[in-house]
Design brief:
The protein is an alpha+beta fold. It is about 20% helix and about 40% strand. The chain contains 2 helices and 13 strands. It has helices at about 60-80, 140-155; strands at about 10, 15-20, 25-30, 30-35, 40-45, 50-55, 85-90, 95-100, 105-110, 115-120, 125-130, 130-135, 165. Strands 11-12-7-13 form a 4-stranded antiparallel sheet, with helices on one face. The longest helix has 22 residues, at about 60-80. The chain starts with 8 loop residues before the first strand and ends in a 14-residue tail after the last strand.
């Protein structure tokens, strides 16, 4: 039995759960998310104890894998509609900066042209100052994906540490040629 999959997902009072066939919709104060789970998995909502129960039909390798995955996705959805997920990026480098204009994140990170990333629906991206970017949203996967795409524009390089990094990320700085 999956250690994660067998645990019930606790649903707080301000979160609504609707199950129609294989589609699970979870709504809360911060938004609404929906997922369609695999046919090998069964999802049930117990309204008395306010829990989502995830079970599987058989012990196939795929079923076991999707059991824990489905439960984790549902847990992330419940948590996301209550309080939004957040990723913080910091930009390090002389002249490197970011700004938001409409639904576009503009990054100036040492290239000849400004890099423009379109912000997906459901995410809110803000720049408290020119060297910090905050990505917020209900969907954990979307938040992480957009933050990773912004970081991939200019990853931190190992000699001076310039680039886009997650806040608090430790970049190992290599000694240059003069170290020998």
């Amino acid at each position: 039995m999956s250690r994660i999959g067998k645990l019930p997902v606790q649903v707080p009072g301000d979160v609504k759960v609707a199950i129609q066939g294989r589609k699970v919709t979870i709504g809360g104060p911060q938004g609404e998310l929906a997922i369609e789970h695999r046919p090998e998995i069964k999802v049930a909502f117990d309204s008395d104890s306010k829990q989502i129960l995830v079970s599987r039909e058989d012990d196939d390798r795929e079923s076991r894998a999707y059991h824990g995955l489905t439960r984790a996705l549902l847990q992330n959805m419940v948590q996301g509609v209550r309080e939004k997920y957040e990723k913080r990026l910091e930009i390090v480098g002389v002249g490197y900066q970011a700004s938001v204009a409409g639904n576009v994140l503009k990054l100036r990170v040492g290239y000849a042209n400004e890099i423009q990333l379109t912000i997906p629906k459901g995410l809110e991206v803000t720049c408290p100052d020119a060297t910090h970017v905050v990505v917020r949203g209900c969907d954990k996967q979307k938040v992480g994906q957009f933050a990773a795409e912004a970081r991939a524009v200019r990853k931190p390089e190992p000699y001076k540490g310039k680039g886009v990094r997650y806040q608090g990320e430790q970049v190992k700085i290599k000694p240059g040629k003069s170290a020998t």
